[in-house]
């Protein structure tokens, strides 16, 4: 049967397509988005290369700088969330500022970037399961066996509804952040390492030493996911209040937490020794100090929490992508059957099945190709996804500025002009550093990896073309898009 995308079709059976409202409060949104940042896996994965390839002992300062960039971005983002409440925040905001063709391009790039990040995390989940779980279970299951089991679990839990998801993610977030805080406090109680406890890692001379741009690049990648706060606006009680508060709390929480625990680990090794340890023992960088200060049992616990941290991030990204798909279906861009919600749980279950399938297919292709799980599936995909999200953040920031300049709905200069402009410039600068240092970020100098910026630009151009075609072929859908 031929799909109809008329406005009447989009609007029919609203009771079956609307997301369940008044389900989320501020802290439930915080749990959902901070879990996407995956604090434990971000610290274990990003800090060693940030130390060895970036600014060494100045990494805590790099996390402060990255957090400040995103706080400035959040000012305009939070202001915009009071005027535009859509489940597809990025593309709705870009549409409001740059117009519908750019909005369609933003939606396409968001879907591609978040999906590729999910594939990366499924690979990482499988990799660490073979390292941590296989010896305990005496299992010979390959990495992709664990990844596929995880994919099924994320799908089942994702359909159960956003309230259950937020509660589970909140618990996992507390556990993974708790063990890092426990380690950090233990390091402080022992007076740090050979040079004691020092604030030198935050001093300008140390922070700006080496390659601070590369360190900030790794730090900013650790924040990916916080921007999803606005996506849950339609499911919030008082979204005009909940979304801005959740955005600021999420960024501040991640920034303070990352800066503190990286400061503690740098002090544990000492500013003079931390780079050599990060070079020689990147995989054991955190576990060496955990064994020393917390003991073998807690170090083993940290290993298991690393797996749960990645799972939490996967579930959070799944929820984000599902809401993009659901929103685009209501817009009329994607097939109408994807907008239906579960009769019991109120979740966009049809969009959830499509999202799972869209990740499963490329994951199977990687498996059939025999791709290296860490060197290709994770490293390449996380590089692609991070560039795409940072580009979207920068474009969104500039779009917010244009929207308020044109509409004058909010005349606060800092909130609607200065902060979006500075945030956009900061994010665009980090995106440029990412593009120039892809070999460092991905661990590969492959021609495919070097072409990622061109691929992202091509996806965006294709989206613009689709938007222009929609204007001519489906004018009603085009007129409704992003509004």
TrEMBL record:
It is a multi-pass membrane protein. Keywords: Membrane, Transmembrane, Transmembrane helix. The chain crosses the membrane at residues 29-51, 57-78, 90-113, 144-162, 168-187, 199-226, 246-272, 293-315, 350-370, 382-405, 417-435, 447-470. One of its GO terms (biological process) is transmembrane transport. One of its GO terms (cellular component) is membrane. The keyword Transmembrane applies. Residues 51-416 form the Amino acid permease/ SLC12A domain. It is found in: Membrane. It holds the Pfam family AA_permease. Gene3D superfamilies: Amino acid/polyamine transporter I. The keyword Protein transport does not apply. PANTHER family: AMINO ACID PERMEASE, AMINO ACID TRANSPORTER-RELATED. This is APC family permease.
């Amino acid at each position: 049967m031929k799909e109809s995308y008329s406005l009447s079709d989009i609007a029919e059976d609203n009771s079956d397509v609307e997301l369940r409202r008044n389900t989320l409060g501020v802290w439930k949104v915080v749990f959902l988005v901070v879990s996407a940042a995956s604090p434990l896996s971000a610290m274990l994965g990003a800090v060693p290369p940030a130390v060895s390839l970036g600014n060494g002992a100045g990494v805590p300062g790099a996390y402060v700088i990255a957090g400040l960039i995103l706080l400035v971005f959040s000012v305009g983002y939070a202001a915009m969330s009071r005027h535009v409440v859509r489940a597809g925040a990025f593309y709705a905001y870009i549409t409001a500022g740059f117009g519908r063709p750019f909005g369609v391009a933003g939606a396409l790039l968001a879907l591609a970037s978040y999906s590729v990040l999910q594939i990366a995390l499924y690979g990482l989940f499988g990799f660490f399961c073979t390292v941590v779980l296989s010896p305990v279970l005496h299992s010979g299951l390959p990495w992709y066996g664990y990844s596929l089991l995880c994919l099924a679990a994320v799908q089942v839990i994702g359909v159960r509804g956003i309230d259950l998801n937020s509660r589970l993610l909140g618990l996992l977030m507390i556990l993974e952040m708790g063990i890092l805080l426990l380690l950090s406090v233990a390091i402080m109680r022992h007076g740090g390492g050979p040079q004691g406890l020092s604030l030198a890692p935050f001093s300008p001379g140390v922070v700006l030493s080496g390659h601070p741009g590369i360190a900030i690049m790794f730090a900013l990648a650790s924040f990916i996911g916080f921007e999803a706060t606005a996506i849950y606006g339609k499911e919030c009680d008082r979204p005009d209040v909940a979304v801005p508060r959740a955005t600021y709390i999420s960024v501040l929480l991640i920034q303070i937490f990352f800066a503190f625990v990286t400061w503690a680990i740098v002090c544990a090794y000492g500013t003079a020794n931390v780079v050599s340890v990060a070079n020689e023992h990147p995989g054991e960088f955190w576990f060496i100090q955990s064994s020393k200060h917390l003991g073998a049992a807690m170090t083993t616990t940290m290993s298991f929490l690393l797996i749960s941290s990645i799972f939490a991030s996967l579930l959070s990204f799944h929820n984000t992508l599902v809401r993009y798909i659901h929103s685009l279906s209501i817009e009329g861009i994607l097939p109408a059957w994807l907008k239906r919600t579960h009769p019991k749980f109120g979740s966009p279950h049809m969009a959830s099945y499509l999202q799972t399938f869209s990740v499963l297919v490329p994951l199977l292709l990687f498996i059939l190709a025999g791709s290296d799980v860490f060197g290709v599936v994770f490293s390449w995909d996380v590089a692609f996804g991070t560039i795409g999200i940072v580009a979207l953040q920068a474009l969104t920031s500039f779009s917010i500025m244009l929207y308020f300049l044109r509409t004058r709905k909010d005349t606060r200069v800092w909130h609607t002009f200065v902060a979006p402009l500075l945030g956009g410039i900061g994010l665009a600068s980090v995106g440029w550093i990412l593009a120039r240092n892809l070999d460092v970020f991905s661990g590969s100098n492959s021609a495919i990896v070097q072409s990622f910026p061109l691929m992202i630009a091509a996806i965006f151009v294709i989206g613009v073309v689709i938007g222009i075609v929609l204007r001519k072929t489906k004018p009603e859908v085009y007129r409704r898009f992003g509004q």
